[in-house]
Write a structure and sequence with these properties.
The complex is a heterodimer of chains A (about 625) and B (about 400). Chain A contains 14 helices and 34 strands. With about 625 residues, chain A is α+β, with helices and mostly antiparallel strands. The longest helix of chain A is centred in the C-terminal third of the chain and has 16 residues. Chain B is α/β, with parallel strands linked by helices and about 400 residues long. Chain B is globular. Classes of the chains: A alpha+beta (about 625), B alpha/beta (about 400). Chains A and B meet through helix 13 of A and strand 6, helix 9, helix 10, strand 10 and helix 12 of B.
């Protein structure tokens, strides 16, 4: 039997009793642990079935501490203390993805709520991504409850960070609640305050139904599970629903709420949050932000705010072993079912063989997809250096959209436009100089600077996205000893003086290494890659020149000298086995060599040359 | 040291699969005897050898007894016909007295019989032979001496931690010739960090000046686990440089060919076909041999096996009536072909062009003549690359 939902049954709960909220928190600030305590206190999870980070479903989420897909959990709560003790309510906790790449998804989750719990680690203070999401919540007119977590930690400084939060959201420091997700201290009080402080949802119960999709998840057994928040009217089981962006009509196979396991219900009404299943197999048919209505009594206008996800960053993904190409295709097809933002098309590279040009929302999205392909599908991949989308306007007025440096047009180019972002960096004030230097070096222009507290500064920059995706985050971390945090969001595009740099091995361009860079950085990029390759490519039986060129102009040159000695002097009785085994191993190794003309390039060299110094782990913090 | 052997187990009685007996016997039979004793260990050496302190209770008497037992086991295991070559290596064979060495040679002779004119070589350290001991060895049946000279430069010998004085090796070679050895080899090592071009030229000069008929020259290899490797790792000694080694090799070829030596294997030069080391040629031509002693490798009819390494363990196994074989591998036809190519490539007699695709090799590394492909001088320095091109 599912745990009880109290007297407020789905479809029969007055909006007055409902509180929809999300938790805005930085990774590692304890959101999942706090959610665990809430699940226990509201008794929706059987104590015997409780496990840590109950709501995080994917291994990757649990390991990296990142919530990729959101969830909504319905929890009954009766106020325990203070005024209104005994009042019964239904809490819907809507989980939000916690990273910059998923800003749009975050904004939809926020739009499904009336309030937000701003959860900040009392030992660390607010981070840039949290700040960005806080601003988003405030833009959505959400009521914000500031909460300091981990107050049980010896390093906690609740006074200091309460000041900071009060300053940010315009409240008093004593308004900041103090909890420990770990020990559970303060959590019942927080739940009470959610009921007391957050407004109840408001909607027109008699109007045609309108429900906003805030998440859409593919499940191999059930097809797409769509999470919705009802704004107006009512959705009942067995009705036909309509997607307002496409007009597509689907049979409703199942309707219910999550608590935190799915519980089927007959209806969900104004203010309620639930899931529905229609049998569609691809999340593209049930897109986040879209409005659902009832087919036989459709709403006239959709809820606002729907956007098609647009890839911002592209990278080529190639299987290390060319024969894995069909597996890669199949894996991408599977991931796509659950990821409306993932786009890809086949491409081939002279150096890397057959692969896909894949579009992502951002770098984290790229890392996650790559990691899932490797982990869940057992693929070994090479990914080319990520690039942004350029709009190239030729002198004859023709326009070319470039998602891959190799598509960069060769004719007379009028103007090149690159995407820009508004970047926010939070840093201890000791590192302001270092951060500014870095941002300026990346063609950033300072838009503003604020002191959040005596020793923490918020810097706002407009920067080309292309500069951010090239090891910016790593640089930021290393220059601030890991203290700075970063958030960014698209802010349009700008014309820039960009050129394509090609890398040639023995006169032959290696497409995988071509890059579009600012004119002033072409030389630096060329020398950097050429020098890297000189180190990485083993000496061959002949001399190999490495050149970096812009068009036909060579801007950097290195030479790999021919190898002169490749022989082990001794080969006596006891050496023969060893030598044969080495040869057998080399035979295997040769399969992992890519030929560029006559030059044998080990896969490792490609991988190392293509990686910026960035490691996926660096983004955890 | 706790590494498991990377082969199949050897049966306790040391018996070979039936197929081995069918394949064996076509390319000659030799005996290798490993003497695993040294007075001290040189820093670069990763051979299976032990100083007195490392023997863990094993001793020379026990060793001699165990070798005799292994010979008995060998006689029961294979029927190779007569012995064409014997090679005593180490370690330091001359840690044994000439009488002890001669005694083991006798045992081998009694087991299978030595062919008439068989080549019988022992390695020797220059400092552990005397005119007298050399005469005894000659009288007891040894026909060839191989002396570890390594270098004529004292700074190089110091890095290598060799005990002998620079002039001692050529002197010992002269003594060997005077003792009646027609065939004397000097081993040289080049590319030692700190060795100058002149140092190596001096070594070549001294070696050829000693009137020997054979010279082996090896580039120094920093083997894992040696004291030298640790010194290199710590940065106390620079890593040997392959380009320097290539220069030294060219210098060796130039000097030796001017003095009447001709290469017959990548690292070996001789003054005449008779001066070539028949035992080593047997290895390279895919012949059969039984390796006696701790850690010794054997090859018989496409089966390779190797003995337990420690003298104590070796003697124990034989004392229990068991084969000292630690592990073995039974080569497939493809593996045997691979070995043929990788060994024959290194020889001046070269490869039969009908068995390999020489077009896979970069131009300029092989010379083709009368159906044989032979490494050019540049090819000799890239022999492993040539083998890879041919086989992969």
């Amino acid at each position: 039997m599912p745990p009880t939902l109290g007297s407020n049954l789905p479809g029969a709960t007055a909006p007055d009793a409902i509180r929809n909220f999300c938790i805005i928190a930085h990774i590692d600030h304890g959101k999942s642990t706090l959610a665990d305590r809430m699940l226990q206190l509201t008794e929706v999870v059987d104590p015997r079935l409780m496990r840590a980070q109950y709501l995080d479903r994917m291994d990757i989420e649990r390991e990296r501490g990142i919530t990729i897909k959101s969830q909504a959990v319905r929890m009954p709560w009766t106020i325990r203390e203070g005024e209104r003790t005994g009042e019964q309510a239904v809490l819907n906790m809507i989980d939000t993805p916690g990273h910059v790449d998923f800003t749009y998804e975050v904004s939809r989750s926020l739009a499904a709520c009336e309030g937000a719990v701003l959860l900040v680690d009392a030992a660390q203070g607010i981070e840039a991504q949290t700040l960005a999401n806080l601003y988003l919540a405030m833009e959505n007119n959400l009521t914000v409850i500031p909460v300091l977590n981990k107050i049980d930690l010896p390093a906690a400084q609740p006074e200091k960070y309460a000041e900071e939060l009060a300053h940010l959201i315009g409240c008093q420091p004593e308004d900041c609640l103090r909890v420990s997700g770990k020990t559970g201290i303060g959590v019942p009080h927080l739940l009470d305050e959610i009921v007391r402080q957050l407004p109840a949802p408001v909607g027109d119960a008699s109007a045609p139904a309108r429900a906003m999709i805030f998440d859409s998840v593919y499940d191999i057994y059930r097809g797409v599970v769509t999470y919705v928040r009802v704004i107006d009217g009512r959705i009942e089981a067995r009705e036909r629903i309509k997607m307002m962006s496409t007009g597509a009509v689907h049979e409703l196979l199942e309707l219910g709420v999550i608590s935190p396991e799915p519980v089927k219900s007959q209806a969900i009404g104004v203010g309620e949050v639930g899931y529905l299943i229609t049998g569609v197999k691809d999340v593209r048919q049930s897109r986040v932000g879209d409005t659902i209505t009832i087919n036989n009594r459709p709403a006239k206008t959709a809820l606002g705010g729907y956007k098609d996800p647009k890839p911002m960053v592209y990278s080529g993904l190639y299987p290390l072993d060319g024969s894995d190409y069909p597996d890669l295709r199949e894996a991408l097809d599977k991931l796509k079912l659950n990821d409306a933002a993932l786009v890809y098309e086949p491409e081939s590279s002279a150096a890397l063989g057959f692969g896909f040009r894949v579009g992502f929302l951002g770098l984290l999205h790229l890392e996650i997809i790559r990691e899932r392909l490797e982990r869940e599908f057992g693929l070994e991949l090479i990914s080319t250096a990520p690039n942004v989308v350029y709009r190239v306007i030729m002198e004859d007025g023709k326009e070319v959209t470039v998602t891959n440096p190799s598509e960069y047009p060769t004719g007379k180019i009028g103007e090149v436009h690159e995407p820009t972002v508004r970047a926010t960096v939070l840093t201890p004030n000791d590192y302001v100089g270092a951060v500014m230097e870095l941002c300026q070096g990346r063609r950033g222009s300072l838009q503003g600077m604020d002191y959040l507290s005596a020793d923490r500064v918020e810097l706002r920059y407009t920067m080309p996205l292309g500069e951010i995706i090239f090891d910016f985050f790593d640089q930021l971390k290393s220059r601030t000893k890991g203290y700075a945090s970063l958030d960014y969001e698209p802010s349009g595009e700008q014309a820039a003086d960009l050129v394509k740099v090609d890398i040639l091995l023995q006169g032959e361009a290696v497409d995988a290494f071509s890059a579009i860079v600012h004119k002033e950085k072409a030389y630096a990029y060329g020398t950097m890659i050429a020098a890297k390759l000189r180190e990485l490519i083993p000496r061959q039986q002949f001399e190999v020149p490495i050149q970096a060129a812009v068009g036909s102009r060579v801007i950097a040159r290195e030479t790999i000298r021919a190898i002169r000695k490749d022989v082990l002097a001794k080969c006596y009785g006891g050496d023969i086995s060893r030598k044969r085994k080495l040869l057998e191993k080399q035979k295997e190794g040769k399969k992992r060599m890519k030929m560029v003309g006559r030059v044998e390039v080990p896969q490792e060299a490609f991988i190392a040359a293509l990686s910026t110094s960035e490691s996926p782990d660096a983004k955890k913090k | 040291m706790a590494q498991l052997p990377d082969g199949d187990p050897v049966p306790d009685d040391g018996s070979l699969p039936a197929g081995a007996h069918e394949i064996a016997g076509k390319r000659g039979f030799g005996v290798y005897l490993h003497v695993p004793f040294c007075a001290s260990r040189c820093g670069y050496c990763d051979f299976n050898t032990y100083t007195p302190g490392e023997l863990g209770g094993a001793d020379i008497d026990g060793y001699l007894e165990a070798v005799k037992r292994e010979l008995k086991l060998a006689k029961e295991t294979i029927a190779p016909g007569q012995v064409r070559t014997v090679f005593v290596g180490g370690g330091t064979p001359t840690m044994l007295t000439p009488g002890q060495l001669g005694g083991l040679l006798d045992e081998i002779d009694k087991t299978w019989g030595l062919e008439k004119g068989a080549e019988v070589t022992t390695e020797a350290n220059p400092e552990s032979v005397t005119p007298d001991s050399l005469k005894q060895l000659r009288r007891l049946g040894f026909t060839r001496i191989s002396l570890g000279m390594q270098s004529a430069a004292s700074n190089v010998l110091r890095i290598l931690e060799r005990q002998h004085r620079p002039g001692r090796a050529p002197q010992a070679a002269t003594e060997a010739r005077e003792a009646g050895f027609k065939h004397v080899n000097l081993d040289l090592i080049y590319g030692t960090p700190g060795e100058s071009k002149e140092d190596f030229e001096l070594s070549l000069e001294k070696a050829t000046g000693a009137g020997v008929d054979h010279i082996s020259a090896y580039s120094l290899i920093v083997e894992d686990g040696t004291r030298l490797a640790r010194q290199v790792q710590k940065g106390e000694i620079p890593q040997p440089d392959d380009d320097v080694a290539a220069d030294r090799y060219l210098a060796a070829e130039e000097h030796l060919s001017a003095k009447g030596f001709q290469w017959y294997e990548v690292s070996n030069w001789a003054t005449s076909p008779q001066a070539q080391c028949q035992h080593n040629l047997l290895y390279w031509r895919g012949g059969d041999w039984w390796g006696l002693g701790p850690g010794a490798h054997s090859h018989y009819g496409g089966v390779r096996w190797w003995n337990v390494k420690h003298p104590k363990r070796y003697a124990e196994r034989l004392g229990q009536g068991k084969s000292p074989g630690l592990a073995r591998e039974i080569l497939t036809a493809e593996q045997r072909e691979t070995e043929d190519v990788l060994l024959q490539t290194r020889l001046r007699e070269g490869l039969d062009t009908s068995t390999v695709d020489v077009s896979k090799v970069e131009p300029g590394l092989l010379e083709i003549s009368e159906g044989r492909a032979t490494l050019t001088l540049r090819g000799r320095l890239l022999a492993d690359a040539v083998v890879r091109s041919l086989l992969t």
